[in-house]
Amino acid sequence: MVRINWTFQAKDNLKAIAEYISKDSRRYAKLQVIRLKNRTRILKTQIRSGKIVPEINKENIRELIEGSYRIIYKIVKDNQIDILTIHHSARDLKRRKIK
Q1: Average pLDDT over residues 11-15
Q2: What is the spatial distance between Cα 36 and Cα 69, in angstroms, rounded to a whole number?
Q3: Distance separating alpha carbons of residues 25 and 34, to the nearest angstrom
Q4: How far apart are CA 71 and CA 87, in angstroms?
Q5: Tens of pLDDT, residues 39-85
Q6: Distances in Å between the alpha carbon of 30 and those of 34, 36, 66, 68, 95?
Q7: β-strands 80-88, 61-66: how paired?
Q8: What is the pTM of this model?
Q9: Is 57 left (phi over 0), alpha (psi -120 to 50) or beta?
Q10: I want to staple 71 with a disulfide (CB 3.0 to 4.6 A). Which of 31, 53, 64, 79 is the partner?
Q11: Can you list the domains of the chain with their CATH numbers?
């Protein structure tokens, strides 16, 4: 089984997403966060299920898509994944520093 580690950046992203959406609907904000978290569950059994992030082009940095969001993760080991960031697809990823 793979261990999924949420980085501080990814946790902050989730919080910011929830705060932004909750201005219109607290219920929808909560649902969106649940959807994003649930989307990562596939990584417990299929670590390479996401595609390689084109802007970074490294085999071990991949992304899952959930709605308008890109869940960017790094395969650290065969049994560990770090969720690096949750990024809205309308924004330019090149401005972010992802390692």
Answers
A1: 95
A2: 8
A3: 14
A4: 6
A5: 999 999 999 999 999 988 999 999 999 999 999 999 999 999 999 99
A6: 6, 10, 14, 16, 27
A7: unpaired
A8: 0.90
A9: left
A10: 64
A11: 3-92 (3.30.2310.20)
